[in-house]
Structure formats: structure tokens, C-alpha cells
Amino acid sequence: MATEVLMPQMGESIAEGTISRWLVKQGDEVERDQPLFEISTDKVDAEIPSPAAGVLVEIKHAEGDTVPVNEVVALIGEAGEKAPSASEKESSAAYAKQSPAAAETTGREEKRPQPTPKTAPSPPAAKPAAAAPEGPSEPEAPSEPETPSEPVSEAEEELAERVRTASSPVVRNIAAQEGVDLSEVEGSGVHGRVTKSDIMAYLQKREAAPSAPAPSEPETAVAAAPRRREGEGFSVPAYTEGENVEIEPMSKIRQITAAHMVYSKATSAHVTTVFHMDFSKVHAARQRAKNGFLQAHGTKLTYMPFIFKAVAAALRQNPKLNASIDGTNIVFKKDINLGMAVALDWGLLVPVIKNADQLGLVGLAKTANDLADRARTKKLSPDEVKGGTFTITNPGVYGSLFGTPIINQPQVAILGIGTIEKRPVVVSDVDGNDTIAIKMMSYFGITYDHRLVDGADADEFMNDVKRGLVEDSWSELDPYV
Fold first, then answer.
1. Which of 63-77, 201-215, 413-427 has the lowest mean pLDDT?
2. 169, 97: one domain
3. For residue 5, what are the contacts with CB-CB under 8 A and spacing of at least 6?
4. Whose CA is closest to 296, among 481, 477, 480?
5. Are residues 200 and 68 in the same domain?
6. Which residue, of 108, 126, 142, is where some domain finishes?
7. E strands, 363-460, in order
8. What spatial distance separates the first Cα and last Cα of the chain, rounded to whole Å?
9. What is the predicted pLDDT for the residue at 470?
10. What is the model's pTM?
């Protein structure tokens, strides 16, 4: 029996993924765990491995297709098995369509009931047993509409509507931007769920609908005015006719990231505060141990494990920052899973360090470096981009003093790390005398969701991080000095 290759779920809120590239061809032999195809979501851009060894018998979705999670994208058969030809597929489909037995085995259709003299639907509690109709049997008229075998209750209709409109954040954000009511869009996903391809097709159809301009309005005035859709503000054209520009399409991960960021800004009440952090003690500990650490573990000791450890300890003391909002409920996360933003040539990914508060400097360094390396080579698994409770981004490696990052939904805070460098600062001795000293310093900017986190909560958390960076003895590094 062929093994099904499913579209994986690459995050809690992810309902679909886009196949960006097939790495093997139909009919090729593949090994277990061999990369089959690449996908893009708003969480990750990753290679998906083969679940079994054999032959890639059939590819069901082409490059560029957006596929719901858990839908079959390919089939892997026995070694030596050939892919079905086009004629075999057509004949198989025709047989399944014409044969009642085949329709039964698919589980997707019920046998059409024979016509009965009853016109009103039977009560839902009493399901009639199948019985042959009385009188001579006549062929059903093709123009007669098919009626459902059982009535659908209001509760079932309401549930189906909730499932259909509970689309991914990307779809909901596009609908909000374009002023689209999702209940008006025909969904092709599971249970009629509206996918990204569904809403994009709806928008294209809406754009193509003819609109009659007012004959009295001059053509030049219409062309000069920015376009406006119902329920939206004015839209300013990105370029004008004859302007010297070069146009290239956005990558899938860039499109999804853009939609996710706009969705986050529209969801959370963003506030940012900035703290000046003393890295003198961290810098000294790292300088003493970095060579021995590299020799012992084969990986570099950067500043980030020190930051991860201080943040994880502060989150344990400040649970509001490690929570999410669900309607009018607060969801406090018991695990501390740190998302670490990784900048790539083709976009931004956020792999997750699970249970970061239970790891020491060695574990944090090895885990973070491994996740970053595999993010760059598209080797991350679905579990490694799920479950983040707090995110840390490090634009300081590019020289940024500090930033105001956007919250990674459904979290309520994100920490931005500024460049770590020597700066003159005022220090006071025990007698209160002030002097100027040169220290390794950094600006940390935390953006938080003011719906849940107040300024005092964020400041208390940041002060705990600040104390962790200067008060920890970092004795874990003694063996590497």
C-alpha cells in the first residue's frame, strides 16, 4: 500500500503551506528522511523529509500550490512501482464516478437514495433504514435536483460556518485589509475552510468585475485620483506610468511575513520601552571561556546564551510576559519556550528553544546554534517552530542601537537586542563619588501588548533581566577557562 505524504502543520495557527519547490521528480526512488519538497508558511521555510523509502509514485500538488495541513501532497509506493499514467488516472476517476460500489468505498459520497413520495424531511432522530421503493422503478430525471438524505440541524449549520470562517491569520488579515466577509467566499479547504488561494481568487474575480465610470467625469481626473475600496482608506499607487522601476514578485515567505506583521499590529496594542544593559561581567566571562568552550563542544559561545538564561529566569518571575490572550481570557503558559528570530536571505524564521529555563549556558548555546544552522539549511522540523511563548530578536549584530520589534502572535511580548559595544558611562563608588568608565553596554527594547501587560509589568521584567546579567557568577564556564 502506498504511503501518503501529508502537508505538515508548521505552527499552532498554521492552516496551510505553500509548496515552493519539489526536490525530486515523480518516478524517482527516495530514501526515508530524504528531503522531498520545500514549503513556505508564515512560521518557517523548510524542507519536508520523506516518511518512507520507495518510489515517488504520484505528485498531487505542483510548485506554487497552497495546500491545507494534513492534505495528501504525494504518494510513495514500493520500489519498482511505476507512477500511474494520465489515461489510468482518467479511467480510475471515471470508474469511481460511475460505479456505486466505488463511491461507497471512497467514503466521500453516500449512495443516492431512491425517490420516495415524501416531500418533507424526516426528523433527525429517526434515520430510516434503506428500503426498496414501492411500485415500478423509473430512471431519475437529470434535471431534478438532488435532495440530502438527512436534514441538517441549525447547530450543524452554525458549526460548519464557524469552521469555514475560522481561517488562518493570513487569510483573516487579507480579508480585513480588503474588506471581505469570509462568509461570502467559497472555501476549498477541509469542511469548506477558506484558504489563501480561495480569497486571492475571490479578490481577482472582484477586481475583474466591470465598473462603469461616470460619463461626466474626465478620464484624466479618474486616473490621477488614488483608488479607494469600500471600507478602506485611499490607496496610493506604488509607481506611475513611465517611471524608471524594476518589478519582481515577492517570495511566498515574504508575502506571508508581511501579512502576519500587519495582522499583529492590528491585533495587539503595541508599546515599546528601552533599557540600558551592562554587559561588562558577561563580556569578561565570555572572553575567558570562549576558546575552551569551542574546543570542548565544537560550537561558539556568543552573547546570546547569557541573554537567554537571564530572560528565562525573568519570565519565571513575571508570568504575564509568558502568556497569551484568548478573547477575554488570559492563558498563562507553564513552559518557557524562547523563540529566536533568525534572519535568512529569503526571509525571517523563528525556531524555538523548548524549556529554556531548564537549560544551562552549555545547553542554550548548543541548542541555539544548532537551530540557527538548520534554519539556514532548511532542515527544521515542524515541532521546532511550534510552541514559542516569548521571542527574542537580535538586530544588534547588524549595528542597530535598538529597535521596536513587532509582537509574534499569539505572544504578548518580544525583546529586541541592540548592538553590544564599549560606551562611556557614569559609575559611583561606595562613597558616592562619580567617575567615567568604559563598559560593554547594550540597549534592550521590549515591545509588549498593552491589552495585558502594563508599563510597570514590563519594567519589572526588564529590571529582572538586568540584574541577571550583572549578578550571575557564570560559574558554569569555570571548566573552560
1. 201-215
2. no
3. 36, 48, 50, 51, 72, 73, 74, 75, 76
4. 480
5. no
6. 108
7. 390-393, 413-417, 421-428, 434-449
8. 58
9. 94
10. 0.62
pLDDT of residue 285: 96
pLDDT digits (tens, 9 = 90+) for 20-48: 889 999 999 999 889 899 887 755 678 88
Catalytic residues, by residue number, are 450, 454
Query: Domain of 58?
Result: 1-108
Q: What is the CATH number of the domain that holds 341?
A: 3.30.559.10
Q: Is 85 helix (H, G, I), strand (E, B) or coil?
A: coil
- The Cα 386–Cα 405 span in angstroms is 20
Strands (E), 28-95: 29-30, 35-40, 45-49, 54-59, 66-68, 72-77
280 dihedral zone (left: phi>0; alpha: psi -120 to 50; beta) = alpha
Contacts for 244 with CB less than 8 Å, ≥ 6 apart: none
Average pLDDT of the residues of the chain:
79
From CA 373, how far away is CA 351, in angstroms rounded? 11
Helices 455-471, 280-297: inter-axial angle, 10-degree rounding = 60
Quick one: DSSP state of residue 238?
Answer: S
Indicate if 305 and 318 belong to the same structural domain: yes
Q: What is the pLDDT of residue 338?
A: 97
Residue 219 lies in a domain: yes
